[in-house]
Amino acid sequence: MADAAARLRSLAEQVLGAPLPVRLRAWDGSQAGPPDAPALVVRNRRALRRMLFKPGELGLARAWVSGDLEIEGDLYTTLDAMAGLVWERGEDAPGLVQSVRDPAVRAAVRELLMLAGPPLPPAPPREEVRRPRRRLHTRHTDKRAISHHYDVGNDFYELVLGPSMVYSCAYWEDGGTLETAQRDKLELISAKLGLTSGQRLLDVGCGWGSMAIHAAREHGVGVVGITLSQEQAAYARKRVADEGLTDRVEIRVQDYRDVKDGPFDAISSIGMAEHVGADRYLDYARRLYDLLGPGGRLLNHQIARRPQGDESTYQVDEFIDAYVFPDGELAPLGTTVTQLERAGFEVRDVESIREHYARTLRHWVTNLEADWDRAMRLAGPGRARVWRLYMAASALAFERNRIGVNQVLAVRTPEPGTSGLPLRTRTWNT
């Protein structure tokens, strides 16, 4: 097939009803599109079959993860250019099902199928999680989902996250480093929780132990950190021992539903609540409320989506659900605050740090790309490609205000109603 790129570009634009904002380079070496635009490289016909038989985000992701689709040029520029076709099509723009009712579009789809050629649709890449979405967020399914995401290998996470081993949004100031920004985020949370020597902190979803270690070392707090990841727990325990904090910090492989040894003075939940799920969220909030003593504080650090239609519904991203966070669900900020209040909490402060997450993700992508060959050896080429796409696309999503991240401070306010917080809550000692 000579000049496959021009034919592919023409047919794709007929189906999409919009011009392609990128240059195409096809498997035969041909190119079509603006010469100064970033290039989408369709390496083989299988890439086209993946996109045709699963149109939209998931088909593109499968082609990318398998290496059938490449990007030539700046990854962020390309994803930003594609956003209007994949993630941000206007409400009036017809979807593929509606579009194919047009005879001209149907004819273009038939030509694309001929161009893609046999055989039947290729199997998804092995990195894809394939399971029915039923019986979600049981202890068993949550443990399996957490293992898929976090048991990739601690060496891989060290490469991406850097020495802080903090896998959540950092808290930046101009000119700061990633390590400084992560330390400042942990200190901000400590200040909001009012941590003082002798208190007990429960760190839900403790990861590799960074918050637990910071709270114990810097504030003299006794900490119980819980995770469902065996690899995280082993790494965190070693870090705790190396810091000489085994008398203050206990790391458990434990579900939050199984914690029985309250009350705690404070609870931190940093980047964990996205895993809880819509059906379980109120139970999660009530469980944390019950684990706090009177006057105890909760700091809930959580990604949020923008409201779309029914604010009570949760959003599942096809690519992220299949490759990154199985069973993860994002809710609007208002829904989260409502659920915390229904559980009995008094919500005292909400801080959006959306731009901070975009900057954090760009630093993680830089770390990954700087040691790309080692990343592929550690996690495998497919998994490394998943992470590169996921983090770069997420950075753009935060920058374009499609998603946000918020720190919600809530209190188990005792009778007669004194929260114990300062009158001016934004005077955190950071």
UniProtKB/TrEMBL annotation:
Superkingdom: Bacteria
Pfam families associated with the record: CMAS (PF02353)
Q: Which parts of the sequence belong to the Polyketide synthase-like methyltransferase domain?
A: 156-414
Q: Does the keyword S-adenosyl-L-methionine apply?
A: yes
The answer to whether the entry has keyword rRNA-binding is: no
Q: What is this protein called?
A: Cyclopropane-fatty-acyl-phospholipid synthase
What phylogenetic lineage does the species belong to?
Bacteria, Bacillati, Actinomycetota, Actinomycetes, Kitasatosporales
Q: Return the annotated region ranges for Disordered.
A: 117-141
Q: Name one GO molecular function term.
A: methyltransferase activity
**Keywords (A to Z) from UniProt:** Lipid metabolism, Methyltransferase, S-adenosyl-L-methionine, Transferase
Compositional bias (Basic residues) = 131-141
The UniProt similarity line reads:
Belongs to the CFA/CMAS family.
Which GO terms of type biological process are on file? Answer: lipid biosynthetic process; methylation
